[in-house]
């Protein structure tokens, strides 16, 4: 939705035959400022597929994503990575590799993001920013009832960010006089209560409630469909070209300050 | 809010110096179709205060409320009772007493209600009516953080009514694939999940979520202030005069069918 | 979701090749107590397709639905009708036809419903029931931005039902001191304010807000997907067999009293 | 809620006998890091009341507030101003006055804020930050029915900020296929639709809805009580001491970047 670059960006999609990969191909195809120049599948020779590619989007599998990114960096291709399974260690290795290349003049950018949903990423970011101004904060996440884990990874991540922001600001824990009843779906994540609702008909939703005497701020996010990730992926493609080095998290290319 | 009776109803308030009693006195005073003719306090002679009274409202204390109601019935005065502490046994005794008097031609009505909040009573009633039509149902209650119990009595009552309605209709339990995480504030009440949020700034709120594939029904109720009980009390005063015998629960005089 | 009948109901679907018809076929097929015995398409001989059919579901087109229903009634087949275009006159003709047949012992039932979404029908019904107990009531409907009309038919229908219930109970209009600003999407429907939000990402949603001093009741309904109509259609199939004569509106087979 | 300064801040309250002034006095009194050293009323000699005062809070009236602030600046006292009626011109004069004094070494800070409600200020700020990432955005504000203007000033301010952010980012207007129905309470503010709900029981609430294909972000803010302004006032007192010059808007001392 942001201002369009003057020049078309040539995009390769890695994992182009996967569920997310196909959706990315369609979204890139439909964007007037992006040009889908390569669809790379498992077994294809990646290095040989990168001629004239500006940005590669990796939605492959944990076992190959790090090697893919290394190949992209060496080829001078910017990378947007949505594949899961990255650890502090693997991110550290890519960061070191980028730094080494930068010494030789490379300006390649790599963006690794666990979540490309703009509403999800913004909800989490705003909640963390607001957390230190309120006496109380709790999180409610709501999902379809076939989900196995509770609370959701997104809600845990949100609560962790809220807890860190409050700790840093020296805010006291949310008050709670309850003497009974710790038997509901959810968890205490770093001192932040997370409630997990499971309801047929829902997809993935998160609500952060922040309260002071006489006021409440509620930040709610609804993901109705996987299509919702595409605006975030496109935005990442457009931003990564001007952000050399490693960036982790879509929120860090949103210029929210 | 319903149609006004053609004749003024003369009202006595028992416990007129208590917090709720004072609010009832003010509300009765402000209603054009009601006439506040007696304010009875602890220590006053109740029987001697009932001359010309049509309806008495009892917001006293558990230790005296049953004796009060018995006195009212004997004096032929209808009773609206908001005092807590009633049990199946004490309600049974009043019911028997009313039946015995009815044999002698008495048409006195007694309404005992644990909750006069119209939005709370309607939310609970609608949720129970809707419960058998949905695959999933969960309850979220939200209160100020000084509350000691969780979940709230109202939420427990709601969940119990939902569970009974689903059991009677032969509905399967709400689906739930969760394998982790039962460590949040709340409870499983008769198979219905109740989540309890505690947040500074809130008063008393309840949300019932009902879901089917592709759809959701949410019934939410907010009590911001004790003033919210007054419309229910006034409605009870107007209805009890035409409902001989014992009625338990405001929902039973709302004609919701 | 209600109790299962002891015997399988044999179902025909008229308009089986349409979008809704296909969804109904799939839903009937998946229901253990229903047996899909006929799929009737435009051009098929309807009368010849009804051997052994208990209930027929009509999702055809306005130009043929009345003739279809007449054929079904004559064949002794119960009818569930979701086709639009019915008028007071065409409903009257079917009602008369059913009455004439009932004189000869027919117990055929016909259910014509403009909306099979359980959450939508329940929201509307509950809102109408609650409307007389609150000083204020307003309606907010939210839809995708490609919708041409505002407010939606469902919201207009809801507001009309609310207005009728309040008028019947002698309730004053919702208070409103506003002296400026009647330039937003929506309408005043029989004295009830209806606000229309249009937002990419949404499907069809309605929220009824009811308020008294110190309290609020909110009834919200979300339709995320056409699949949400199926539980209502299945319920209608199971109920119509025991409801001779004409019934208009799904709410009238829900036994909400 | 942020980290406490090591030293107590001595506070004067101007307009100490007004509704807001009294609330500020109570809040300052209750804060362990603030010391209420002067309560100034209409008619008092302001300049003579400022001995040893670090920060003065002005909740007086439009006719005197600019003169008050000038007196405070001259006395080297930081000012937090909640009085309404400021214009671009009066703010400009104070800014010039501060600049002139700064040339002589003054580090006095003045904070003028139209709204001290943290949830309201944060909702507006987050909505403006998020606005360029979504295809659609609309605003719903909800207030008690005695309010004369619609939409509310806060909602107009929010919509203006959203419109500016979208214009700057080159985002297209929110899509809208509606061909009927512009007769509801509310307005089109710079191309952003604002809906105004009026409901007994409510106080002041605002909801910003942002939508993309398959996702929604909702930022909601509830002001239940005037007490909700106090955390913002206290935060302003603590921040103004280290922000020389003129700051307009509480959001600019919240360090939200």
TrEMBL record, chains A, B, C, D:
<dbReference type="Pfam" id="PF05173">
    <property type="entry name" value="DapB_C"/>
</dbReference>
<comment type="function">
    <text>Catalyzes the conversion of 4-hydroxy-tetrahydrodipicolinate (HTPA) to tetrahydrodipicolinate.</text>
</comment>
<feature type="active site" description="Proton donor/acceptor">
    <location>
        <position position="143"/>
    </location>
</feature>
<comment type="similarity">
    <text>Belongs to the DapB family.</text>
</comment>
<dbReference type="GO" id="GO:0005829">
    <property type="term" value="C:cytosol"/>
</dbReference>
<dbReference type="InterPro" id="IPR036291">
    <property type="entry name" value="NAD(P)-bd_dom_sf"/>
</dbReference>
<protein>
    <recommendedName>
        <fullName>4-hydroxy-tetrahydrodipicolinate reductase</fullName>
        <ecNumber>1.17.1.8</ecNumber>
    </recommendedName>
</protein>
<dbReference type="GO" id="GO:0009089">
    <property type="term" value="P:lysine biosynthetic process via diaminopimelate"/>
</dbReference>
<feature type="domain" description="Dihydrodipicolinate reductase N-terminal">
    <location>
        <begin position="9"/>
        <end position="116"/>
    </location>
</feature>
<dbReference type="InterPro" id="IPR022663">
    <property type="entry name" value="DapB_C"/>
</dbReference>
<feature type="active site" description="Proton donor">
    <location>
        <position position="147"/>
    </location>
</feature>
<dbReference type="InterPro" id="IPR000846">
    <property type="entry name" value="DapB_N"/>
</dbReference>
<feature type="binding site">
    <location>
        <begin position="82"/>
        <end position="84"/>
    </location>
    <ligand>
        <name>NAD(+)</name>
    </ligand>
</feature>
<keyword id="KW-0520">NAD</keyword>
<keyword id="KW-0560">Oxidoreductase</keyword>
<keyword id="KW-0220">Diaminopimelate biosynthesis</keyword>
<feature type="binding site">
    <location>
        <position position="144"/>
    </location>
    <ligand>
        <name>(S)-2,3,4,5-tetrahydrodipicolinate</name>
    </ligand>
</feature>
<dbReference type="Pfam" id="PF01113">
    <property type="entry name" value="DapB_N"/>
</dbReference>
<feature type="domain" description="Dihydrodipicolinate reductase C-terminal">
    <location>
        <begin position="120"/>
        <end position="254"/>
    </location>
</feature>
<feature type="binding site">
    <location>
        <begin position="113"/>
        <end position="116"/>
    </location>
    <ligand>
        <name>NAD(+)</name>
    </ligand>
</feature>
<dbReference type="InterPro" id="IPR023940">
    <property type="entry name" value="DHDPR_bac"/>
</dbReference>
<dbReference type="GO" id="GO:0019877">
    <property type="term" value="P:diaminopimelate biosynthetic process"/>
</dbReference>
<keyword id="KW-0457">Lysine biosynthesis</keyword>
<keyword id="KW-0963">Cytoplasm</keyword>
<comment type="pathway">
    <text>Amino-acid biosynthesis; L-lysine biosynthesis via DAP pathway; (S)-tetrahydrodipicolinate from L-aspartate: step 4/4.</text>
</comment>
<dbReference type="GO" id="GO:0016726">
    <property type="term" value="F:oxidoreductase activity, acting on CH or CH2 groups, NAD or NADP as acceptor"/>
</dbReference>
<feature type="binding site">
    <location>
        <begin position="153"/>
        <end position="154"/>
    </location>
    <ligand>
        <name>(S)-2,3,4,5-tetrahydrodipicolinate</name>
    </ligand>
</feature>
<feature type="binding site">
    <location>
        <begin position="15"/>
        <end position="20"/>
    </location>
    <ligand>
        <name>NAD(+)</name>
    </ligand>
</feature>
<feature type="binding site">
    <location>
        <position position="41"/>
    </location>
    <ligand>
        <name>NADP(+)</name>
    </ligand>
</feature>
<dbReference type="GO" id="GO:0051287">
    <property type="term" value="F:NAD binding"/>
</dbReference>
<comment type="subunit">
    <text>Homotetramer.</text>
</comment>
<dbReference type="InterPro" id="IPR022664">
    <property type="entry name" value="DapB_N_CS"/>
</dbReference>
<dbReference type="GO" id="GO:0008839">
    <property type="term" value="F:4-hydroxy-tetrahydrodipicolinate reductase"/>
</dbReference>
<keyword id="KW-0028">Amino-acid biosynthesis</keyword>
<dbReference type="GO" id="GO:0050661">
    <property type="term" value="F:NADP binding"/>
</dbReference>
<keyword id="KW-0521">NADP</keyword>
């Amino acid at each position: 939705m942001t201002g369009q670059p003057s020049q078309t960006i040539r995009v390769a999609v890695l994992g182009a035959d996967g569920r997310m990969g196909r959706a990315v191909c369609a979204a890139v195809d439909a964007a007037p400022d992006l040009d889908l120049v390569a669809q790379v599948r498992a077994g294809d020779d990646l290095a040989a597929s990168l001629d004239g590619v500006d940005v590669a989007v990796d939605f492959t599998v944990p076992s190959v994503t790090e090697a893919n990114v290394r190949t992209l960096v060496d080829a001078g291709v910017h990378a947007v990575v949505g594949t899961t399974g990255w650890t502090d260690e693997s991110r550290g290795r890519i960061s070191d590799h980028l730094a080494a290349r930068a010494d030789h003049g490379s300006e390649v950018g790599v963006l690794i993001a666990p979540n490309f949903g703009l509403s999800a990423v913004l909800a989490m970011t705003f909640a963390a920013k607001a957390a230190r101004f309120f006496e109380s904060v709790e999180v409610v996440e709501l999902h379809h009832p076939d989900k196995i884990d509770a609370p959701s990874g997104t809600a845990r991540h949100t609560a962790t960010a809220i807890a860190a922001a409050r700790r840093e600001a020296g805010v006291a824990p949310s008050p709670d006089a309850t003497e009974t009843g710790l038997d509901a779906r959810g968890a205490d994540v770093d001192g932040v209560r997370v409630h997990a609702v499971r309801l047929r008909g829902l997809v993935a939703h998160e609500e952060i409630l922040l309260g002071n005497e006489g006021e409440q701020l509620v930040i709610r996010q609804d993901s109705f469909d996987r299509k919702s990730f595409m605006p975030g992926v496109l935005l990442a493609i457009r931003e990564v070209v001007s952000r050399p080095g490693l960036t982790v998290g879509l929120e860090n290319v949103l210029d929210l300050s």
